[in-house]
């Protein structure tokens, strides 16, 4: 025991924390109503998602990502792996067509060679490392090897005897592949890509793994799993699997290769045989996962060392074959509306649908009605809000006053801009609330069941620190009974108020 503890202490600090962890998303495209690349990028930007993994190197998608700064992992699909792994020239052509043609405008930072090759395409295993080396050589020739790392995603099932983590090791039959692969990752400063699915671990454990342990829910100390060799306490499956990978690499004498989780998530819907694939469990898992990663908690073996993670996945994929759950891993539907509202208050600036309670933007009590009218004009004009529900005879026309109508317009803009900071101010006459202002048949944007649109706008609402005259001399949109009929008189009065 003493020797095991000493060995552990010598190895525990080998992987260093030199950058913060991040959350990314995977983009699958098996949708019957797949948004176009521009819409996908608009959603990513609106949700502050700065890291994306593609399962291919789709040209239209890479062009749409140009000049966004979003960091992208492109992939060599499994059906192209044999050709690239057997020909340096084929690999060079692939890099020229799918990488060099797009950088630096598109911020490609990684290339994933295949997916779960050892477990899904074992006949390609002998040429896997050659494929990585050929792709890396092409990057090296173009001086892109420092910017773009090359690796290959693995299923966590290649790790055997994964609990306790200190006893974990890779399937020995893959040693002829894993040893040179890890040597390549170490020599190029790359990372081990690992797909971690506590959902499947839980489903396959026949009740041995508690649901709370899989979902990151708090556990009493007596329920925590303890590694008897290291005395480390594990409070969730995710950390245990990641540490099992670290110990499996240690078993092969590799101590300085970081783990990046390329897939993790939880399905929001399943068939009769999958009773725990529910909206609540998916919400709980992904919310807790995001918080856990962004807090830079690390793992018990490597506390404070980031475990950057890509959530599987951005959209529900209704065309995926298999069980109901296979189609329901997405955070969003194809129209850009969230499948569920993540519980992430205070967790960080990723995913704008990250509030425990729904929030709305409303007119501030006591606000000057002339300033409200000016802000209403801006929202329904340059702000490009759809104010048609405020027209006479429509669902939100009543009550017919500037307070009610500006509240609708303010909130519509706020929701349209994905609740971005500064989009609920309007020269100080608006305020955020958790009370849903919907009434009768007037359903406000952002309410449960309301229709939403993908954000693709760069206009900003007039804020309290704006130096321009937005909200001032704008085309008049009279929805209430404010006593101004001349836009010229209105403009003069408003400018007097603004600059007093």
UniProtKB/TrEMBL annotation:
Gene from which this protein is expressed: LOC111495591
UniProt topology in membrane: Lipid-anchor; GPI-anchor
Organism the protein comes from: Cucurbita maxima (Pumpkin)
Reactions mediated catalytically: Hydrolysis of (1->3)-beta-D-glucosidic linkages in (1->3)-beta-D-glucans
InterPro entries with a match to the protein in the record: GH, Glyco_hydro_17, Glyco_hydro_17_plant, X8
Biological processes, Gene Ontology terms: carbohydrate metabolic process; defense response
SUPFAM superfamilies in UniProt: (Trans)glycosidases
Main subcellular location of this protein, as a coarse class: membrane
Name of protein: glucan endo-1,3-beta-D-glucosidase
């Amino acid at each position: 025991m003493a020797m095991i503890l000493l060995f552990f202490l010598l190895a525990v600090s080998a992987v260093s924390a030199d950058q913060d962890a991040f959350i990314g998303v995977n983009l699958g495209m098996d949708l019957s109503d797949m948004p176009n690349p521009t819409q996908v990028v608009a959603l990513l930007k609106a949700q502050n998602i700065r890291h994306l993994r593609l399962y291919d190197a789709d040209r239209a998608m890479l062009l749409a990502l140009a000049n966004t700064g979003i960091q992208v992992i492109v992939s060599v699909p499994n059906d192209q792996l044999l050709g690239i792994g057997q020909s340096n020239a084929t690999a060079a052509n692939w890099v020229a067509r799918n990488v060099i043609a797009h950088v630096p405008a598109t911020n490609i930072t990684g290339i994933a060679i295949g997916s779960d090759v050892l477990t899904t395409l074992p006949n390609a295993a002998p040429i896997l490392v050659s494929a990585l080396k050929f792709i890396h050589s092409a990057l090296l020739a173009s001086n892109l090897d420092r910017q773009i790392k090359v690796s290959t995603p693995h299923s966590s099932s290649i790790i055997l005897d994964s609990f306790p983590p200190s006893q974990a090791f890779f399937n020995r039959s893959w040693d002829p592949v894993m040893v040179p692969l890890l040597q390549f990752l170490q020599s190029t400063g790359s990372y081990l890509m690992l797909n971690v699915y506590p959902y499947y671990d839980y489903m396959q454990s026949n009740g041995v793994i508690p649901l709370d342990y899989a979902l990151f829910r708090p556990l009493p100390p007596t329920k925590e799993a303890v590694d008897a060799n290291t005395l480390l306490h594990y409070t969730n499956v995710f950390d245990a699997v990641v540490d099992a990978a670290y110990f499996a690499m240690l078993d092969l004498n590799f101590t300085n290769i970081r783990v990046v989780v390329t897939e993790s998530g939880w399905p929001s819907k399943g068939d009769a045989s999958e009773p725990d694939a529910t909206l609540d469990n998916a919400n709980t898992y992904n919310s807790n996962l995001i918080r856990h990663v962004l807090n830079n908690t690390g793992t018990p073996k490597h506390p404070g060392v980031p475990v950057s993670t890509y959530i599987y996945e951005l959209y529900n994929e209704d065309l995926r074959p298999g069980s109901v759950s296979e189609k329901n891993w997405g955070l969003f539907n194809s129209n850009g509306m969230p499948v569920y509202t993540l519980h992430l208050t205070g967790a960080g600036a990723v995913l704008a649908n990250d509030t425990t309670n729904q929030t709305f933007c409303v007119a501030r009590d006591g606000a000057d009605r002339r300033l409200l009218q000016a802000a209403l004009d801006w929202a329904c004009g340059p702000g490009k809000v759809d104010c048609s529900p405020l027209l006479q005879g429509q669902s939100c026309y009543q009550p017919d006053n500037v307070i009610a109508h500006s509240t609708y317009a303010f909130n519509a803009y706020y929701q349209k801009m994905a609740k971005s900071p500064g989009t609920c101010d309007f020269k100080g006459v608006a305020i955020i609330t958790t009370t849903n202002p919907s009434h009768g048949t007037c359903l406000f944007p952002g309410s449960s069941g309301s229709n939403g649109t993908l954000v693709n706008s760069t206009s900003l609402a007039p804020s309290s620190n704006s130096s321009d005259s937005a909200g001032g001399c704008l085309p008049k949109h009279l929805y209430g009974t404010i006593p101004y009929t001349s836009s010229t008189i209105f403009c003069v009065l408003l400018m007097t108020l603004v600059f007093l």
